[in-house]
UniProtKB/TrEMBL annotation:
Keyword Lipoprotein attached: yes
UniProt-recorded name of the protein: Myelin and lymphocyte protein
Keywords associated with the record: Lipoprotein, Membrane, Transmembrane, Transmembrane helix
KW Transmembrane (keyword) present: yes
Ranges where the MARVEL domain occurs: 18-111
Subcellular location, principal: membrane
Similarity-based family: Belongs to the MAL family.
GO molecular function list: structural constituent of myelin sheath
Amino acid sequence: MAPAAASGGSTLPSGFSVFTTFPDLLFIFEFVFGGLVWILVASSLVPWPLIQGWVMFVSVFCFVATTTLIVLYIIGAHGGETSWVTLVFSYVATLLYVVHAVFSLIRWKSS
């Protein structure tokens, strides 16, 4: 497949121009509010710690993923192509779903 620039699509920003485009500007808000959620969830008392653990996992994972993605954009690791982000994170998400399903099945069978 041809790169996005050659096929008429837009290219991804790199460097600090990430902070000047609208969708990528949302990284800043995701980073700030994600950190606040992480802090608030960790400091709250809930009746079932398992629920807090799951919310904490999702919050920390999203915070780390956002941080990783913004750092990759800033250092220009994408090379200006748009398909690598979807491809890398799609495979990671699918792999995590499969691993979770397999271990859940093993736990269910052993109980």
